[in-house]
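Title: [Solved] ABC transporter ATP-binding protein 3D structure

Original question kept below for reference.
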Amino acid sequence: MTQAPETSEVVLSVRDLQTWFDTPAGTVRAVDGVSFDIRARRTLGIVGESGSGKSVTSLSIMRLLDPPGRVAGGEILFRGRNLAALPEAEMCRLRGQALCLVFQDPMTALNPVYRVGRQVAEAIRAHNDISYRAARDRVIELFGMVGIPDAERRFDEFPHNLSGGMRQRVTIAMAMANKPDLLILDEPTTALDVTIQAQILDLVKGLTDTTVLLITHDIGVVREMCDEVIVMYGGRVMEHGPVAAVTGAPRHPYTAGLLASIPSVAVRGQRLNAIGGAVPSPLAMPPGCPFAPRCAHAMPACDVQPALVEATPGHRVACWLEQGAEA
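Solution (posted by the thread starter after getting help):
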């Protein structure tokens, strides 16, 4: 991704976030002590397998957790204000204006019985004192910006009349309508074919003035799109740093495994690499490092969770291999 100008302004600061789900079978620590900053006009990616805590992190930031989910600890500082402690009425004012979330499935955000243009127009009018006509003009402008052809006609279409790619463009237009300070994209291209995926990613890359948090399972997408990356597993941060450092010289065995599993024309016809084993049950997480049962480098020290330490400037890793432990 083209590097945005350096800035010291932190838009979002997450500190020791803990999000738990209290179930009859026990407490699931879906996010367990996650911390990171996102600076203005930068893109941070969070990558990991399903069940690693990525989407729960985004829902925690937006305060969209359904019971029995709850933020059990930590702070979510958005421009210095702790979102975890704000009254719900204040959060409602921020959502859709300063903070926007684009879901993997655009039908999650679109009402099937209302025309798509009207839905985006109402999102604009909810936060701005303007006429419906002015909002309509703004929607048509936005549709053009996100690559929706024949925008005036598409304004009056229902969601089911549009392709998956077009529906996702509508949700991105809705998210960008009020020029948010932070745009969160939760697996925005997973349900789309590869051609439409590329078009949506190019659209996101063009948002050079927007601060973006990109949630994905695809480390190849992160390599293309992001300035920094967090690798999550079992609700914890395994590795965090600049994309070039993390993807070019991974320090954690889990990150190395994700990178090795990316298909490549260089290995066409050969069996794909895969990380052995499976993600553990969230109700039966292993003690210490959650990746240890699947790790070829596991050692007795892994029974204790390693701290996230700086391996090189700006590049942090939670692995005993980086801390001099011996098998």
